[in-house]
Amino acid sequence: MNSTIFEPITAVKGIGNETAAALEEMEIHTVKNLLEHLPYRYEDYRLRDLETVEHEERVTVEGKIHTIPTLGYFGKKKSRLTIKLLSGRYLINVIFFNQPYLKPKLTIGETITVTGKWDRHRQTITGSECHIGNHSREKEFEPVYSVKGSITVKGLRRFISNAFSQYGSMIEENLPPQLLATYKLMPRKDALRMMHFPFSADDIKKARRRFVYEEFLMFQLKMQALRKVQREQSKGIGQEFDGKSVEAFVGTLPFPLTHAQNRVVEEILNDMKSPYRMNRLLQGDVGSGKTVVAAICLKATITAGFQGALMVPTEILAEQHTQSLKAMLEPTGVKVALLTSSVKGKKRRELLEMLESGEIDLLIGTHALIQDEVNFRNLGLVITDEQHRFGVEQRRILREKGANPDVLFMTATPIPRTLAITVFGEMDVSTIDEMPAGRKAIETYWAKHQMLDRILTFVEKELKKGRQAYVICPLIEESEKLDSLQNVLDVHAMLTQYFANRYKVGLMHGRLPADEKDEVMQEFSVNIAQILVSTTVVEVGVNVPNATVMVIYDAERFGLSQLHQLRGRVGRGSDQSFCILLADPKTEVGKERMKIMTETNDGFVLSEKDLELRGPGDFFGKKQSGLPEFKVADMVHDYRTLEVAREDAAKLIASQSFWHSGEYAPLRDYLEGTGVFTGEKLD
Ligand code: ADP
Ligand code: MG
């Protein structure tokens, strides 16, 4: 008797070679795999009061047959069997398709239980299942599994049931007793059985609770182990910067830092000082003052004798950052340079030479910064703005640039905490959760497109005061399609005509050549153009403090976080600013989203709401986001457990006993299997 759950599935009764082959297609190879193939939902056979059942919902009811069944045939073999059923105070119709054999069993007065789809208007259940007799309370929930090929859900239920009678007692625990006790979690053996054969909703809840924790803990263990490995295996530089110069630089700023800014600066500088390599995410709402923080850290690395690099997603942003960082840093003797695709020929060669010789202290640009031809003398700190736009590939190139610079990722899209600790679970996170004092909240209004006239009157009132306005049309910059490009062109033409001889209207979109983009931005930033019609290319970072009005066309087509980013282009000066959302949303969710925008200016609140309304998969857009897939757990709804599991994982990884004591052996085996320690699956 040496059987184990690691045996091939053919060891299970009823599974022959053919079935086994089909199961292999579903990645079920061993008995263990089969036992751990969990249902993704349950068929609910609990009795319901029809009053509470929605149209087209599946429902189970019990009732007494009220009429003799009528059987009709149509087509060759198709039949329809109809009865009237008295269920509680309802007299309803029940229809069975293609089950003529039921007819003799359905006699008047007989009690039956039917399950099917409820048509509220016709008061009819299209019953797919019929059980003669009372509702049986034993089988209120049936598991539903994902299946493939020739495997059916019913078949799978049978295989799993057989597997349990043969192997159920051999399922081993993988969580240490102390954690099971602390959280009162079910033993693995019992929890697995209940997931497959639950008697009640409560069973499912309890069993699920255990697996949610298990899944999160395993995942977080992997992330924390990865973090440990990255720290210990990557030699950092342990930067010794000149604290006095850094402080003096902070003293030159026209404002005191907020508490939050002070805190994150300290967190980052401590990392840079440490012998480990920094891998940190800095998040803060638009306008919370991340650029200043970046400037201080760059200044620090330069005082330690290193160079700094700042990577941003667009050239417009690169130029803006260059302007503001030059203004801040050059008076303190820092040499700042900008590298974009329009720096060409001799100028480019000279710039690259100065970089290699160390004459340039700080280089700013798009991800062109990390291309082959760009060589730093000694890179100490790399900051990337709008982190999620840089893919895994760029991060790898950065790692392979030879040097071991500290890395700081900045993002202005506040990432809901639950995503931050899953997607960026192996990183440290600093958060600026406070706005500089004296900011006026942006007033946000939601208007229908037909109100455009009134809105233009309002815009003009602001322009008369000497202010400026953005008008944004939806369009995603990388995939500018012609029809939506037309949209921006049309709006631009319309406004040019409307404001003719009074105000100049600029036009900006991703298809413009780089030098034209520069010119347009330049004209807007010095108020030669008072209105800028643009696609979302101005979404990130653009800073024109005199602009006080943001009008967004078709606002329902943007996500909340993106709308918030766009809105963040105004409210950057001391004047009251306004954001007007032009939208005719068709759905309730769409209306809800517009309403939320008018109610809050807090990017963290909006990002949580966005996650709730759109789900984690959509949060980062379609691009590869590194979102893990959980079988049972749901990052959004189970976030409390996620937090707890993360803390537990961190404690475990940091403790001595985790690496030696027997009770943690299953967890260590699991980590071994993920490849974290061999570096196979890094990233
Ligand atoms: P972010 O990049 O986080 O959106 P910025 O760094 O561009 O924000 O800062 C927005 C504006 O706030 C800038 O004009 C900046 O000079 C100003 N600012 C930053 N920190 C402070 C502060 N502590 N007090 C007052 N103003 C600040
Ligand atoms: Mg910024």
Automatic annotation (TrEMBL):
Residues 451-612 form the Helicase C-terminal domain. Pfam families: DEAD, Helicase_C, RecG_dom3_C, RecG_wedge. One of its GO terms (biological process) is DNA recombination. The keyword Nucleotide-binding applies. Keywords: ATP-binding, DNA damage, DNA recombination, DNA repair, DNA-binding, Helicase, Hydrolase, Isomerase, Nucleotide-binding. Its EC number is 5.6.2.4. It catalyses: ATP + H2O = ADP + phosphate + H(+); Couples ATP hydrolysis with the unwinding of duplex DNA by translocating in the 3'-5' direction. Gene3D superfamilies: Nucleic acid-binding proteins, P-loop containing nucleotide triphosphate hydrolases. InterPro entries: ATP-dep_DNA_helicase_RecG (IPR004609), DEAD/DEAH_box_helicase_dom (IPR011545), Helicase_ATP-bd (IPR014001), Helicase_C-like (IPR001650), NA-bd_OB-fold (IPR012340), P-loop_NTPase (IPR027417), RecG/Mfd (IPR047112), RecG_dom3_C (IPR045562). It is an enzyme of class 5 (isomerase). Residues 271-432 form the Helicase ATP-binding domain. SUPFAM superfamilies: Nucleic acid-binding proteins (SSF50249), P-loop containing nucleoside triphosphate hydrolases (SSF52540). NCBIfam families: PRK10917.1-3, PRK10917.2-2, recG. Belongs to the helicase family. RecG subfamily. This is ATP-dependent DNA helicase RecG.
